[in-house]
Structures are given as structure tokens and as C-alpha cells.
Amino acid sequence: MKFTGSQIVAEILLEHGVDTVFGYPGGAALNIYDALYEYRDQIRHVLSAHEQGAAHAADGYARVTGKTGVVFATSGPGSTNLVTGIATAYMDSVPMVAITANVPSNLVGRDAFQEVYITGITLPVTKHNFFVNKIEDLPGALNDAFRIAGSGRKGPVLVDITKDVTAATIDYKSRKMPEEPKKVSGIDAEELKNIADIINKSKKPLVYLGGGVRAAGAGEELGAFLKKGDIPAAHTIMAAGVLDADDPHNSGLIGMHGTIASNRAVDNADLLLAIGTRFSDRVALNPKKFAKKATRVQIDIDKSEINKNVLVDIGMVCDAKDFFTALMPLIEKKDRSEWVGEVMELKKTTGDVKCDDAELHPSEIIGTVCDMTDKETVYVTDVGQHQMWAAQYLKHDKTCCFLTSGGLGTMGFGYGASIGAQVGAPGKRVIHFTGDGSFHMNLNEACTAVSQQLPIITIIMNNSVLGMVYQWQTSFYGSRFSATEPGRKTDFVKLAEGFGLKGFRASNMDEFTDAFKKALKEKGPVWIECIIGKNEKVLPMIPAGGTVEDMIIG
Amino acid sequence: MALKKEVISIFVDNQSGVLARVVSLFGRRGFNIDSLTVSATNDPSISRITIVFKGDDLSLAQIISQTEKLEVVRDIFTLEKEGSLFRELLLLKVKAGKEERTTVKEIVDIYRGKIIDLSKESMIIEITGAPEKIDGLMNMLSCYEIVEVCRTGITAIERGWQEKEKKND
Fold for domain B4-79? Predict the structure, then answer.
């Protein structure tokens, strides 16, 4: 049967089980959008306000559903607007396929209207990308894109299709994609035995887990391992929620704004078992002194992560779930309660210093939100102080329910990601934490939340400054507040009304609780602006390049 | 850790943009390379990239593991000095009038090079060989006025017969 390039795009999406896409149309994408119209009963298209929002939505959708997120954009600015969203997904290893239209092949390279070399631009922020200017190459490129995005260490792939290809026709036979059997990592039995021996002999082992454990869906296996070996575990922000916040072996967040418990534990451990994590500069702040007393073992699905940032004694290339499954029978049941107790004792001390220039405090807001929502709630953040507070104070207990831009640190990620999350999980409550800085970046997506009737609750922690940079300027730049006091007069309640959604303002806990109760009953999106003090800090903090000895507690 | 020179061979899909992918990776990861050559192979779907890389063992491991992640890379391995042949081609234009001509030719002959162009004021020399030999010739010619130099960079191949599987070790 003859299909146009655009119909092939739709057919292949269906073959890969895609029923929802995000995007924004345009001249070069007209044929593709015409096909989306034709397939509208099978593929839901969510129109964003801006392509960046669509890319973050596809990302949020992927993080919540575990499926590959799909985003469409037109040529030129449409595709460049995706770049931050693609880079965000790349840094956090989120499976995404971005499909962009380009100008017709006869105009490529001639600086045509809305022409940009998007495959060149996205080269360093995609796992791979394709420039398709021949219809024969299209099915292969699209199928490869899904295969690459969703295999190994996941990530974004871009397929750029010239407009003539979207109109050209070819014989094509649609087929159901066979479920690819999950590849089981080839584990070296001897090496595994060696690692098990080291664990069994260790008196003070610590698991340091990252997003790879979450991506592998290895939360249960990890929990069983920690219980059997009686081993404490510290997590990165990408692994928040893999372990229950109150799990007796969970020492909490590690790194710059991590718990005293986790950061002390890493310093005192005699064995560090790093799983699905890359020793980033926000965790191994000083790579030479990180876990210096410990034998360091690293497990990662990506070989190039082994020894990249911190030298390890043993590295193994392996999927986290396969690793735990193979390791479990070799692990001796142990009582390490003394060591676990020593680590967990420190968890009682937090860096929660409430400043007195406002009545509302971040930890209390987050605590109340937790108390009033169920365990299935999806929490999404933007980037900055509120993000760290969310990581510190949310009572995470569900994998895939904490969405944050960990690697790239993209301010403006939150609203788009919330939209994707809510579309992907319509039955779940989605709470979006943001700051006045981050929110100003992409709050235009409010119109999308309204048009799609998505009951996202946005909690804006408004301290009227660009808080994280303001905090650094306070601590390290002698309070020289360069460009962090924007002096904005945005009335978020009125702005919400302007968008056609409900807005609340809260200056104290009673007002907040009241507003949040009302918000939970709304059918559409809601904003709650929370007035907090500008001197509220994220603590504890280990300055960049420092060690646990340099920790600022309060 | 000691810096050393490594020659890396990469087999890649022969398609447009492949070189850009490899070079872009080196650029953003901050890998330092001395030279890079690309050439066709007996298989028209595969090209061969030869890279001379200076770094320690760790950065060598990084450059290899990062490069092999690229979709277009079919195989990557380092070439050991003992078991491989390294060759380079040099074209060199030197200012040489009738006084210098004979002495320059003498040097070129010793190095088994060729004079491939001659004018009243200049000569162009062609030489193929191991990089050390080319360095040697350039050193000998440095007392003359060298006008232009063009070196291809190293291209390399393993000696004898090796099973393909063993190459990655």
C-alpha cells in the first residue's frame, strides 16, 4: 500500500505504541500535521504554547509512563526551541524521540526561510540523530530512533525530515513491532563473586544510588538487598523516591545539599557501592577526597561512566536490576545495626533553619502538601532553591513520582513536565513546585494546562529574588546582589485569572492549607503563590569543591 | 599518570556527517588529538578513521568508551607500536636555487624521498614513511628555507593476520 512520508510517521508511531505526542505546527510541518489530523482518533496531539514546553512535556510524559516521549516541531525556530528540552532529557537519560520537519531538500543549505541545521545543533545533546531527505530512508530512521532512545542508557534521538519527504509516497507495509526481549547483561560470574565477597567482608558499606536504579526499575531488588545485608543507602536527586523516605536504610540525599547522614556516611564508609550514578560534581564535590576511606565499586549500564569522574577499584558494566538479581544469592544476611544506627542517627539533624522575614517556610509548605496528598502523587519541580527543598523535605516513597531536571538544571522545566506527567497519568495528582524565577521562564504553558483541562497544582515559592544565586551571593560574594533582585510586580493571582485558571495567594500556613484544600477540589489547573522570605536558605550545604568538613549546617 | 601517544583505529559507517560526529565528541569531551585521517576501505559501506591521541591511560579508556557509544562506530581499537605499521606522507616546498639544489637532493636521497616539482627558486619533496623518518627529514631541511609543509597525519594498520575478535583487547 502507498503511504506518504507523513503517514509513515504516524504509522510507525502506532507501531511503537505511541498514542500521545506533544508539539507545535508550522510551515514545514504542514504535511505531518495533516497526517496527525487524519490519525487523530489514534494519536492524541497536545499543543503547547512554545516548543520548549512541548519538549519538557514529552520528557515528563516519558518519566511518568516509562514509555518513549514524542515531540513534534517545525523547521528553524521550531526545532531550535526544542534544544533545551532535548538537552534536559539527554542529561537525565530520558527516552525521547523528537521529530522535526525541515525545508524541502532543494532548499537545504540555501538559508531558506526557517531553515536551520538542527542535526548539527543537536549533535552533542542526542544519543543519535537522523537527517532524512530520501523517503526510502524514513522508515528505517524512525524505527532506529525508537530503538536507540529506549535501549541501554536511554536518551533523546532527533529525526529531521525534509518537507518533500513528508509528501513523497512509497510502498509501505505496516506491522506490529515485536516486543524486543530485554537484553540481560552479561555478568562476569567471577567479578560478581569478588564484589559479593567485598560486600560480605565490609563493616561499613554504603550504597550510593542514582537514576540508573530508577531507570532499571530496580527499587524492589535494591530494597531486598539493603535489608538482607543491613546496608544504608544514600541517593542522588535522580534516585529520589526509589527508596521510601522513611525506609530504615535510607540515609537520604547525598551531595551539595544532601543530608548530614549521607555525606558523613560516604566519608566514613569502608565500601562504597555506586549503582547507576556518575559521581557528578554536585555529589563528589571533591573527586579526590570522595569516599576516600572506601573501596569503591561502580556498577553502570554505560561503560564510559566507569572511572569518568572518580576512580574506582572495581567497575562493572551492567543493568542495575540484573546486578541485584545476580548478586542477591551471594550476599550473606548480616547485622550491621551498629553502622546503620551510626548513619541514621545523623538523619535527625537537618539544615532546616527557618528565617524570620516571612511567616511561611518551605519545609512546612512541603510537609503540608505531603500530608494532604496520597502516595501516588507525582511531584514535579523546576530548578533552584525550591527544587532542593522538595528533594530534602518531600516524603518520597514512589519510584517515578519525582520529576526534576537533575543533570542540566533547567529552570522552566517544571510546567511543561507537569503537563506531560498529567497527560501520561490522568488518574494521578500532579503537584508542581516552582520558584518565582523558574516559573517566569515558561509560565506561558498555563494556557496549555487550561486548554487540556489538566488539574495541575502549581505551588510558587515566591521570595521575590532569584533565590539560589541570591544565596550564593549572600554566602560567597559578600552580599553583592548582582541581577538577583528583579523587582517584579507580577500579580500571580490576577495572571492566573488572565489565563483562565484559579489563583491563590498565601502568606501564612492557615492561608496555605485553606488554598491547598480548595485547589485539590478544582477540575483545572491552579496556582498557589506562597510568600516566603528571601533569606530562606538551602541547608546543609557543602560548597563546590569542598568535603563534608566544609559543610554549612545552619 | 604518564602521557603517552596512542594510535586509535575506528571503523565507521560511510555516510555523511560521520566525521562531524566523531570530531564533535572529541571537542566537547576535551580530548586532545594530534592528527586524524579518514579513508575509504575495501568495504564501501565502511570508512576508517585513524587518530593519534596523546593522554594517560584513563583518558584513553574514556575516549574509546565514549566513541564506541556512537551509533556510527562499528569497531574501535588501539594499535600497538610493535605489531603495527605507521605511515605518513609529507609534501614539502623548500626554497632552493642552483646553489642549494644538490645538497637538498642529497638529503632527500638519503631519506629515499622524491623530488616531484622543480622551479628556478624551489623544489617540492615527497616522502612516505614512519613519522620519525619524516621528522628526521624535516629536521635536516630546517637549515634551508622551508616555504610550505603538508603532512597527512598518521595512517596505520596491524601486521600479519589477526582474528577480528581479538582486536578489542
Answer: Alpha-Beta Plaits (3.30.70)
Among the candidates A298, A316, A348, a domain finishes at: A348
Q: CB distance B25–A302 less than 8 Å?
A: no
Asked if the Cβ–Cβ distance from B61 to A307 is below 8 Å, we say yes
* Residue spans per domain, chain B: 4-79, 85-155
In the sheet that holds A314-317, the strands lie side by side as A250-253, A233-235, A205-209, A271-275, A295-300, A314-317
Cβ pair A128:B70 closer than 8 A:
yes
Residue closest to B3 by CA, chosen among B34, B29, B24, B25 = B34
Q: Determine, yes or no, domain membership for A331.
A: yes
| Topology annotation, domain B85-155 | Alpha-Beta Plaits (3.30.70)
Residue A130 a catalytic site member: no
**Closest residue on chain A to B26 (Cα):** A124
SS3 A328: helix
> Where is average pLDDT lowest: A12-26, A182-196, A363-377, B107-121?
A182-196
- In this structure, of A111-125, A262-276, A495-509, B48-62, the range with the lowest mean pLDDT score is B48-62
SS (H, E, C) A221-265: HHHHHHHHHCCCEEECHHHECCECCCCCCEEEECCCCCCHHHHHH
CB–CB contact A304 B65 (8 Å): yes
pLDDT in tens, A208-255: 999 999 999 999 999 999 999 999 999 999 999 999 988 999 999 999
**Which residues constitute the domain of residue A306?**
189-348
Domains in chain A, number: 3
Which of B21, B62, B66 lies closest to A123 in CB terms? B21
pTM over the 0.80 mark: yes
Q: Which tens digits make up the pLDDT trace of A421-431? A: 999 999 999 99
Could you report the predicted ipTM of this complex, rounded to two decimals?
Answer: 0.89
List CB contacts (< 8 A) between B23 and chain A. Answer: none
